[in-house]
TrEMBL record:
Keywords of this entry: Transferase
InterPro entries per UniProt: Polysacch_pyruvyl_Trfase
Entry GO MF terms: transferase activity
Pfam families, A to Z: PS_pyruv_trans
Protein name per Swiss-Prot or TrEMBL: Polysaccharide pyruvyl transferase family protein
Domain Polysaccharide pyruvyl transferase span(s) in chain numbering: 18-224
Length: 312
């Protein structure tokens, strides 16, 4: 059995994980043909005293058991593991210089410190932020979710469907209100089901960043949307993650489209000439990001994906 790859991603406590987060093990296991081992980097620190305090508080609060406590004491004081950070706004959690960043970004522009080795990051906003903090920023940018089409081909063909891709907190409310009129996609469903549903649409409107990214990866036009009045309207962060991704694929910054009353003809009205250029990156741009990511991967990619000529 090949050695497992240490990987961190945000995990939900029950049910399927959130789509963008669960893409981490899905993509890495297929690119490498190796299993991944989850390691929680929020308990890993270059500062050993801070590590001890954090881990001790975690066991006192019953967030971790004794075995996990001893495991992370070993990691911090004897042998710090190298952990891969791939997809998500998770850089704020990286406090170990042994972490390997390949595609991740920030959740907030207010972050003041991050540790790790940077092979690729999500976009130019992350590059800029790293330089401001004095980190060595990489040249390669791109969200590894853009690699999905070389790993998985959908089992459905595009239909004349409008897709709504809400953040998982918004799914039930939007499904209840608009499920008969539109395809409302649940990002807590299995990954390949989500990809199939996205690929069946002619256009998607997404409150979720990875709803937009995966739409673009499969050449489905997509726009950032918001639905005012939803129960959960305030999500974590300050939207830097959207602008970060846009910068990586040549899309100009724009504010999310706000929909209050959804009717089919309202979608065609809101797509102005200015927004049309934001619907879909060029295929060549997607290929460039794919090639950059494969070239900078800090792990061995299997032969069928290692040659990037097909993406250039």
């Amino acid at each position: 059995m090949s050695k497992k790859i240490n990987l961190y991603w945000y995990q939900h406590k029950q049910g399927y994980g959130n789509f963008g987060d669960e893409l981490n093990p899905y993509i890495i296991e297929r690119l490498t043909y190796k299993k991944v081992k989850f390691i929680n980097i929020k308990y890993l620190f270059d500062d050993r005293w801070l590590a001890f305090k954090t881990i001790s508080k975690a066991i006192l609060r019953k967030e971790i058991n004794v075995f996990t406590y001893l495991q992370y004491i070993f990691y911090n004081f004897i042998k710090m593991p190298e952990v891969l950070l791939v997809i998500g706004s998770i850089l704020e959690t990286s406090n170990s210089s042994k972490n390997k960043i390949w595609g991740a970004g920030f959740i907030s522009s207010k972050t003041k410190k991050v540790s790790g080795t940077f092979y690729a990051v999500r976009g130019l906003r992350t590059v800029q932020k790293l330089r401001e903090m004095g980190n060595n920023a990489p040249d390669a940018i791109g969200d590894p979710a853009l690699l999905l089409p070389i790993i998985y081909q959908p089992k459905v063909k595009a239909q004349n469907k409008i897709g709504i891709i809400p953040h998982y907190q918004h799914y039930l409310e939007l499904k209840d209100k608009f499920g008969e009129e539109f395809t409302v996609i649940n990002l807590l469903d299995p990954i390949e089901k989500v990809i199939d549903e996205i690929s069946s649409c002619t256009i998607t409107y997404s409150t979720s960043l990875h709803g937009i990214i995966v739409s673009h990866a499969y050449q489905v036009p997509s726009l950032w949307a918001e639905f005012p009045g939803l129960t959960f309207t305030r999500l974590v962060g300050d939207n830097i993650k959207f602008f970060d991704y846009f910068s990586s694929v040549g899309i100009s910054d724009y504010s999310p489209l706000e929909f209050t009353n959804l009717e089919k003809d309202c979608f065609s009205r809101v797509i102005t000439n200015e927004l049309k250029s934001n619907l879909l990156p060029t295929f060549e741009m997607i290929q460039k990001r794919q090639a950059d990511l494969l070239l900078t991967a800090p792990f061995e990619v299997i032969d069928k994906y290692r040659s990037i000529e097909r993406y250039e």
